[in-house]
Task: structure prediction
Amino acid sequence: MNDGILIVNKPQWYTSFDVVAKARKALNTKKIGHTGTLDPMATGVLVLCVNKATNLVDVLTCEDKVYKTTIRLGIQTDTADMAGQIINYDNPVIITAEPNIANQSVQIGKDEPEIKRHLSDASKEQYDFNILVSNDFSFDFSQPQIEEVLKSFVGVSEQIPPMYSSIKVNGKKLYEYARKGESVEIPPRQIEIFNIYDISWNGKSEITYTVHCSKGTYIRALNEDIAKKLGTVGTTMALERIKTGQFSIEQATSIEVSYDKIISLEDLFSDKIELNNEDIQKLLNGIEIDKGLKDGYYNIYNNDKYIGLGTLKNGKLKRFIIV
Result:
């Protein structure tokens, strides 16, 4: 059985679960999990943990993320991105919006009934419609003004997640409340923006930038907050995750996954420890081994044979994943 990591470049309009479900079918295994949800409209790095590597899901979910995103100023939607229904404008233009696409859930195809997506094929039409409408907006900001506002978000702050998210409140996911038109108090969460760079202003209504942030940061909410600080409304026009932890978009493969694309557990971590027969037996029996090394994850070997992954904390090495 192959254990390891798959780095997938998630296509637009697929949910993160769509990708997991396709991978399960392609690899003929149920033991697959991902390390951080991507919105259906978003693209980019989605890390899948396969078989015994699913034990790494919580570890890798905690890592920092890097996104490239574009804000469309002048429009606010109920989903905080361009796939939703336009609910507010910074312009007197009057339009007729289509029904909220994010409320829909349909099958991808007859051959894959287990895969559901929350956005139907009409999403693309709604998306293009919203883009067309937003082209009517133009703002008189300068590049220095834009950069000053965006840079002001660097640091630790509290963020209120968007209603269309999978965070649970009172045992129920926020998007479940949103789809039923129910309101609920959303507690703020502490996030950290480490850096915002490569800021580009098109001189009309679009801001594109790259952000390095902590886990749990919602870029859709950040973009709305940026627009608010600029004195208008805004929504996420494009979103690509280009890095999560050590994994980058350059390493990503297509959604058509196979076992030969898996990064093995042994290749994931560079630190290693060679143990003798006695210590290996202790480790396998759950006994901690004294090692005067730095904390972290280590590849464990015995007589040059790969045994698995161990964790070392406060000088104590213990088993984690045994292959």
In short: Residues 269-322 form a domain with the Archaeosine Trna-guanine Transglycosylase; Chain: A, domain 4 fold (CATH 2.30.130.60). The longest strand covers residues 189-201. Residues 131 and 182 are 28 Å apart (CA to CA).
